[in-house]
Design brief:
The chain has 317 residues and is of the alpha+beta class. The chain has a domain of 117 residues: 3-Layer(aba) Sandwich (Rossmann fold). Helix content is 38%, strand content 19%. The strands form four sheets. It has a five-stranded mixed beta sheet with strand order 9-8-10-11-12. A hairpin with a 5-residue loop joins strand 1 and strand 2. Helix 1 packs antiparallel against helix 2. The protein starts with 12 loop residues before the first helix and ends with a helix.
Amino acid sequence: VMQSIGLSGEENAPRRLVVLRAIDKLDRLGPDGVRQLLGEGRKDESGDFTKGAGLDLPAIDTILSFSLGGQYRDGAPAFDLFGLLGKSEIGAQGAEELLEIEDLARDAGFGPDRIRIDPSVVRGLEYYTGPVFEADLTFETRDEKGNPVRFGSVGGGGRYDGLVGRFRPENTPATGFSIGVSRLFVALKLIGSPIVSARPHVGPVVVLVLDRERLADYQRMAAQLRNAGIAAEIYLGAAGMKAQMKYADRRNSPLAIIQGSDEKARGEVTIKDLVAGAKAAANIATNEEWKALRPAQFAVPEAELVEQVQKTLKEQI
């Protein structure tokens, strides 16, 4: 978008920052206030004047059309993401990344009522090098005095490959996500969530990723477990099965879910009981004996994944 209005290049970095800061005020000032900040500037109620980005009217219209495009109607986006980017090659690449994320989220069971592409989210774009994520609580609740409360944003993050390099001599790719724990805790407490009082003594069930091209399948399994009230996550690295199992051990996971190509062809998943496996390991003398017995590892129909995980977790108590 910046490229399409002539603000690409390092020489325009200061003006791009002014534009981003103006867009970040959209929820507070509205389109008219942001339009002023994108132009010559804005005078607030106290009389203080904030100098604007100095964009011409066509550029301002382009920025606002893009930033206001994150609204959904009847479950579908009310904007043409590619149309708003003009002929920008790098813009099209970014749009493809966003749509891929949206597809993965949808395959995992999260539609536009949960995850949306919102072009007005610009916080941190001066150092983020990829998509920016922001977690927003959209429900309204009431405080102890009965006053309506809407919490809004409780977390955000993304990829910032160049940030660590500002403080160290080598380039260090990095991702991160911060959560306002106290803010989230209060929100969960007000809606009566049992999560705030629960203290799990074990980690999440870990779904191993043995085929990166089937990432959506693994996400779907994790989502099914979460929807049943079971803490679950998928392995996000690029390591092999052995390293993934070590990761599950470090996470103090009670179970690991495994589905390679063979299991997929049979319509099965393998559940590895890490708690029972650790107990059995104490009574097995050799690696050969371990491979022969495969303690605490069993296959179940994929359709019975949630049921069998619930059953195994109960047996561990």
